[in-house]
Design brief:
691 residues, 5-stranded mixed sheet, 5 helices, mainly beta
Length: 691
């Protein structure tokens, strides 16, 4: 009751802020609505207007990021058409995974400045690690992207492009904020040209939170630097570096109501809030990307990129009860290190104004190290128990793509990629596109392409720990992704409407399951191993509109219907787990003349099947209920340079679960399926100075 009263008092005070605003402050116009002339680079690796791209695309710019109530990249993108984001309970350090069109998160390729952020171990990207204040814009290209970006670009490609220095000004910003759950943030960024063509942009963030559950805390630190030499078309060189460190607890599911505190040797292992009070995790990521671009001639463009990424992951896991071969209190600590080095080069030829040809090659080298050691019942590392496995794989791809526009009414696109993988072999990946522009502000788009996903390093090489082990004989997942999109601008670009029908499938889906062919040392139990056994497919539609009814208001509405099914090796066909058939999102932003900006977002997620008892079940044993959430952001500009902000997330304190997993009560021995809860209502206040 008291928390709710404080929340509404803070909200009321902030709403009153305009009376103290300065008369001299800037009056900010609302941004323009989406237009056919928006320029993206991720769809074809060259600058293309929206009307010339055969895929359905989304562009999130710096203005969209600033006005959104989202505190993370996952929350931000989760409000876009056709996109869902998944977590294991929204606690402080929870991984945020992006799903596009109902495809699992390992079917989304996430790039930062053109370099993949997918974990080679897991095949997914945790976008929670990427700080919002480093981002200039985000380009999302839905549909198969394997032709240009290789493995993982099945449902779509997300390219996060970081900030660069502006030629004509100095950018500087510092933010301090505090909110619910003892959350605080210190953030700074600054960019400028040192000399006429050479400049830098640097960002730094420190964030800590206790989380809304015990052992749900997070300590996050990051810094990034972008050095840029910009001589227009003659030469553009950028060197981007990034360091991120995150330490956090892993609370697991929320135990059943009434669960009593459980101790082992006077050490508490779980309580009624969290299934684990001792399990911890740490990620340390480093990245460096060198991009060199040049257009020495009107008909020739050149691009060269070199990159290096290091991903280090540490897990500290303790067992509350006996679990062979461990006794109560014992556990494991695991280090997984991925080192990725890559190089890519391509050139574009424009022999005629109607024709463009792209030719390129890339090479990536992956190093994988897995170290596991034992923890004794007192929580200490056991000397001499660390076992290490190291593996290397490499890939090389060559790709070609041609675009031809014989008239303003029609455009064709076709291309193919040949990808070789040192472990599973090679794939040929064609892609086709057609665009019809019957009117100036109308685009009818057709896209059809083959996609694939290579087995992850964990799939291939997970060491034998007595219960699980990898499978080096796996094949790649493959399939096709097709869509038809209509885009229309109306009312002098005050209304933008889009509608898409999509259809995709995945063959040889990799699934981890108990394998009777590999018994464990414990009679009656078998190893869990991965194999190519399942098939996935989906059909659906996306409908979205963005309208500017008056000069200082923008309203966006979107709806996605997805019918995603999985067919298991035994022939069972059923709705795909954790995929909602219905997603609805709506947001409205209003800009007041006295410097206040207000943005409200409502989001609906339909019910989702969460667990099937057996591989033969067609109907889920557990279904996660549908839910609504509502977020609000208020930002008041004072004296031109200052911004006071208030963000409220999950305003109505909606209770919902994101996933399910097992929980065993060690007192009774009862095993139940319990949920990872979504975050409670939270409020965050901030003060920003802009130079």
């Amino acid at each position: 009751m008291r928390k709710g009263l404080i929340y509404w008092m803070v909200l009321a005070i902030t709403l009153c802020l305009p009376v103290v605003s300065s008369a001299e402050e800037d009056k900010h116009e609302a941004p323009v609505v989406t237009t056919m002339e928006e320029v993206l680079v991720s769809a074809t690796k060259t600058e293309e207007q929206r009307k010339d791209i055969p895929n359905s695309v989304i562009l999130v710019d710096r203005y969209d990021i600033q006005e959104s109530p989202a505190k993370t990249v996952g929350e931000l993108l989760g409000n876009e058409l056709g996109i869902d984001w998944r977590t294991y309970g929204n606690y402080g350090g929870a991984s945020e995974e992006i799903k596009i069109r109902g495809m699992s998160s390992d079917g989304t390729q996430v790039l930062v400045n053109g370099v993949s952020r997918l974990s080679p171990s897991l095949g997914i990207a945790n976008v929670a690690e990427i700080p919002l204040n480093s981002i200039e814009r985000i380009e999302i290209v839905k549909g198969s992207g394997s032709l240009l970006y290789g493995s993982g670009a099945m449902g779509g490609t997300i390219n996060i492009i970081t900030k660069r220095p502006a030629n004509d000004k100095i950018d500087a910003k510092a933010t301090a904020g505090y909110g619910s759950e003892s959350t605080y943030l210190l953030s700074a960024e600054q960019g400028m040209n040192v000399i006429e063509d050479l400049g830098y942009y640097i960002t730094a963030n420190k964030k800590e939170t206790d989380g809304f559950r015990d052992n749900g805390d997070l300590t996050h630190n990051d810094v990034s630097l972008n050095l840029v030499l910009d001589k227009d078309d003659v030469l553009d060189i950028s060197l981007y570096g990034e360091y991120v460190n995150r330490e956090f607890g892993q609370p697991g599911v929320q135990p059943p109501e009434g669960t009593q505190d459980y101790y082992v040797k006077n050490e508490i292992f779980y309580n009624s809030e969290s299934a684990s009070l001792l399990n911890r995790h740490e990620d340390t990521n480093k990245m460096a990307v060198l991009n060199v671009k040049s257009n020495p001639l009107d008909w020739l463009g050149l691009s060269l990129k070199g990159d290096y990424t290091s991903l280090e992951s540490y897990n500290y896991m303790r067992n509350a009860g006996a679990s062979w071969p461990k006794v109560a209190g014992e556990g494991y600590e695991t280090w997984i290190i991925n080192d990725i080095a890559g190089i890519e080069g391509f050139f574009t030829l424009t022999p005629h104004s109607s024709t463009e040809i792209l030719l390129g090659m890339d090479y990536n080298d992956y190093g994988y190290e897995n170290r596991q050691g034992d923890i004794d019942a007192s929580g200490n590392a056991v000397a001499g128990t660390i076992a290490t496995e190291e593996h290397k794989v490499h890939t090389n791809g060559s790709f070609a793509e041609a675009q031809y526009r014989p008239s303003r009414y029609i455009k064709f696109l076709a291309g193919i990629r040949h990808e070789s993988h040192s472990t599973f072999g090679s794939e040929d990946l064609p892609r086709f596109g057609l665009i019809l522009n019957p009117f100036e502000h109308t685009a009818l788009k057709f896209s059809h392409g083959k996609h694939f996903k290579a087995p992850t390093m964990n799939d291939l090489f997970w060491p034998d720990d007595g219960w699980t082990r990898g499978n080096p004989d796996l094949k790649a997942e493959t399939g096709w992704h097709s869509d038809v999109t209509l885009e229309q601008s109306l009312l002098s670009d005050k209304l933008f409407f889009e509608a898409t029908y999509f259809d995709w499938d995945i063959k040889d889906k990799i699934n981890w399951a108990e394998n009777p062919a590999f018994p464990t040392p414990v009679p009656g139990f078998n190893y869990w191993t991965p194999s190519n056994v399942d098939t996935y497919e989906a059909q659906g539609c996306e409908i979205g509109a963005r309208i500017k009814p008056i000069h200082n208001t923008i309203l966006s509405l979107s709806y996605t219907y997805t019918d995603a099914t999985e067919e298991l090796s035994g022939g069972t066909v059923r709705q795909a787990q954790y995929t909602a058939r219905h997603l609805f999102k709506g947001d409205i932003s209003y800009w007041f003349d006295f410097g206040l900006t207000a943005t409200f977002i409502g989001r609906y997620v339909g019910s989702r099947p969460a667990f099937y008892n057996t591989a033969q079940d067609e109907f889920a044993s557990y279904i996660l209920d549908s839910y609504w959430t509502a977020d609000l952001k208020l930002e008041q500009r004072l004296y031109d340079k200052w911004l006071i902000g208030l963000q409220g997330t999950n305003l109505f304190d909606t209770g919902y679960y994101t996933r399910l997993s097992n929980f065993q009560d060690q007192t009774s021995g009862l095993i139940t399926r319990e949920g990872f809860p979504g975050a409670e209502r939270a409020v965050f206040c901030s003060l920003t100075y802009e130079y």
